[in-house]
Task: structure prediction
Amino acid sequence: MHMAQSESVINSPTQKIIIEEKRSGLLRVDWAELWEYRGLLYTLVEREIKIRYKQTAIGVSWVLLQPLIAVLIFTAIFGQMAKMPSDGIWYPAFVLTALLPWGYFSQAITRSGASLVSSANLVTKVYFPRMLLPLSAIVSPLIDFLLSMGLLFGLLMYAGIPLTWKVITLPVFVLIAMLAAMGLSLFVSATNVKYRDVGHAIPFVVQIWMFVSPIVYPVSLVPERWKLLYGLNPMVGVIEGFRWALLGKSAPDPFMMGLSIVMVLGVLVGGIVYFRQMEREFADII
Result:
């Protein structure tokens, strides 16, 4: 049986007593309670989307313009000037196929990092599962991702790259990206409550992370001796999976894919445990 958390606090000049019922369940998370609050999750996701496009002149067109402009810049700099190889694939399609899952992942990490701090009034005044805040920041970028997939399919048609049965595997790689984003988001959002400079560091770290992921270059350029370390990046498996499913590339290296999945699961479990440990302090220090 799952037990919902309840707290009562008694303050006096000499003591502060906190009475808390322990949670039961996998990783001490009340999954049934999270499901009961799914309506709140939908509301938080809707709020995230409205805030993102509030008072914008061109609205959701930004979803298409951002990756399109990035592709043009990367193609000019890395494809034309630097002559970066692309495994025989037209370079704009090669880059965009990696940019879209990466864009989802980076947005999820960036938005979730500030999700608890930006909702301080809710955290301190109303009880609900705190995990819903970073989770809503992980779900909302999926809308942008799905819209931008239309741009990718249009570009593949223009390039004459046919879709095959492999396209049905895309949800698997999207799920891996979501789980990786969730694990990391639980870490950064909880840490940002206590150390606000984490919020300033996230965009910088994400920008560096992009260039150590195979977005503008193929994995084949990574020296063999570094592939074990490189495979620890969970987005390597996701990006290689997207290129295999959409561009007809050879199947991803099973070792690197397996290593990425193990890393994703490890980060996810660690993130849940860390978030639960920090959660009881949120209302006091936020």
Observations:
- Strands lie at 7-11, 16-20.
- Residues 1-22 have pLDDT under 50 and may be disordered.
- The two ends are 31 Å apart (CA to CA).
- The chain has 14 helices and two strands.
